[in-house]
Amino acid sequence: MKAVMYNYHTWIPYQKEEELIQEVEQMLLQSGFTIINKIEHFFEGQGYTGLWLLAESHFAIHTFPEDNRIYIEISSCVKAYFDEFQKRFQKLLEIKKEYQY
CATH code at 35? Predict the structure, then answer.
């Protein structure tokens, strides 16, 4: 068996962390990922970094409210879960864009 990693990263417009955190965590589980642990840090003043350790690799969020942007990255060794998450995430972005968050 050949070792393969799938990776997706993107910048999205800033939104409140609390809502995005809940949505992303649900999408990870619905996509089939197993969440082993979650580490979060809320920076004093503004900003957030979150890392979900997955049995299948990891997911990270870094917010930059001062630049009105969020960086998101997911890596996975399971293509089916990765593809499902990416599909769900793109749908979420389309819905959010409609509501101009």
Answer: 3.60.90.10
Both tokens of 72, joined, read: 């998101």
Domain assignment of residue 13, given as a range: 6-99
Q: What is the DSSP letter of 43?
A: P
Model pTM above 0.70 = yes
Per-residue pLDDT of the chain (101 residues; tens, 9 = 90+): 789 999 999 999 988 888 899 999 999 999 999 999 999 999 998 999 999 999 999 999 999 999 999 999 999 999 999 999 999 999 988 887 765 54
Amino acid letter for position 63: T
- How many domains is the chain partitioned into structurally? 1
Beta bridge partners of 78: none
With DSSP H G I counted as helix, E B as strand and the rest as coil, what are the percentages for the chain, rounded to 5?
40, 40, 25
Euclidean distance between CA atoms 35 and 46, whole angstroms:
26
